[in-house]
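Feature request, filed as a ticket because there's no other form

It would be nice if the structure record came with a short human-readable summary line next to the tokens. Right now we just get the raw output. Example of a typical job, pasted below so the devs can see what we mean:
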Amino acid sequence: MFTDKVETKDVDKLDPEYGDLLRRVLQIQADCEIGGPHLYVKDMLLNAPTDKDKLLVARTAGEEIDHFRKMCKLANDLGVDTTYLLKRSNMERYVEAFRDVIQTWEDYAVFGFLVDRVGRFQLEEYVGGSYLPLDRLMQPMLLEEQGHISHGQEETARMAASDDPEQRTRIQERVNYWYPKALDMFGNSESRRSERFIYWGLKRRHNAEARSAYIAEVNPLIEEMGLQIPDEKEGRKYF
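Raw output as currently delivered:
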């Protein structure tokens, strides 16, 4: 197990596998950070229910774009040109949850509640990791990510508690839609690449372990809202 702490200048002195995996994880993380705003800004920024919500959408998009900028800077420092990520359509994103479009407030809320939560889990993988420039970014990014999650969770709970049965049905349908996409974001449980990320100190947990921790955290929250927990296997692509 690799236990060294690495600065940018040290990467090319190591086994090439380290640099290859590091560059990969930075590009995927950057793609996810810019993928979110591309899903919802067009339809949600001016169509959120209240002025406060519009401001929160704008702030969330701004923070995600800043996260994208920071990840691109790390990748650029390692010789990776990330401009291609700005030119991608939604359907070209690395992670399927971002190959979509968000046009309703229910989708926006549940996306924040479930998918941004996966984003927090992913950022937590880098805390204390071997690549110091990435580790140093995590504290402020995690604080901002938690804000996105909290807003999504609050709005999902509010709609789940509505006196309008149609509203409750709509929010349950969106939980059913995004839940399997969130679980699939953890990847294949038998991934060999996951093993190598852990070996090199670029991640802390196997995919299955992180997914199980996510389920243990999110399922009770869904139940507390009076919603049904979707089938963990239905609609899934990665197990």
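Something like this underneath would help us a lot:
Residues 16-44 form the longest helix (29 residues).
Residues 8-224 form a domain with the Ferritin fold (CATH 1.20.1260.10).
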